[in-house]
């Protein structure tokens, strides 16, 4: 009976090893679509370059240089897709609390879109069109207010009055 038990144990170990190898092979074949990021993982520098590069359009826009706002300073702006024919320059702005896109037009500046960062919510929005527009992002411990005006025909982040 000792020989039979040895053969059963050896067979069980061999079967378990083969099943494990087959499982690992299947995960390797399908794994990238299950566990990986489609298109790969991008570095912070690659993301900044992609956000800063203007999308192809008939007209071009300059990059934003927002100043400080409210209770926190605005981060560097990014150029956004080209505006429609009836509107002025469109520009994106970022704070630690969230991002917003504004454009200048005949009625003044208006917020086109805004999105809070993870852990923040939009507390207040004045979307315009008006002389200035603002959005406030509220976090658990901090608040960021982004205020934008048109200088010439370009949206620019300004300090809150």
Can you walk through the features of this model?
The protein is an alpha+beta fold and 161 residues long. It contains 2 helices and 10 strands; from the N terminus they run H-H-E-E-E-E-E-E-E-E-E-E. The chain has helices spanning 2-35, 44-52; strands spanning 68-69, 72-73, 75-79, 90-95, 98-105, 108-116, 120-126, 132-139, 143-151, 154-158. A hairpin with a 3-residue loop joins strand 8 and strand 9 (143-151). The longest helix has 34 residues, at 2-35. The N and C termini lie far apart (91 Å).
Characterize the biggest β-sheet: 4 strands, antiparallel
Give the count of helical stretches.
Answer: 2
User: What fraction strand?
Assistant: 35-45%
Distance from first to last alpha carbon: 91 Å
How many β strands by DSSP? 10
* Unreliable parts: 56-86
- The global form is rod-shaped
Roughly what percent helix?
25-40%
Structure classification: alpha+beta
One letter per element, helices H and strands E, the order comes to HHEEEEEEEEEE
State mean pLDDT (0 to 100 scale).
76
Gyration radius over CA: 27 Å
**For the largest beta sheet, what order do the strands appear in spatially?**
3-4-5-6
SSE topology sketch:
Blueprint (H helix, E strand, L loop, with lengths): L1 H34 L8 H9 L15 E2 L2 E2 L1 E5 L10 E6 L2 E8 L2 E9 L3 E7 L5 E8 L3 E9 L2 E5 L3
Antiparallel strand pairs: 1-2, 3-4, 4-5, 5-6, 7-8, 8-9, 9-10
Quick overview:
By secondary structure, the protein is an alpha+beta fold. It has helices at residues 2-35, 44-52, and strands at residues 68-69, 72-73, 75-79, 90-95, 98-105, 108-116, 120-126, 132-139, 143-151, 154-158.
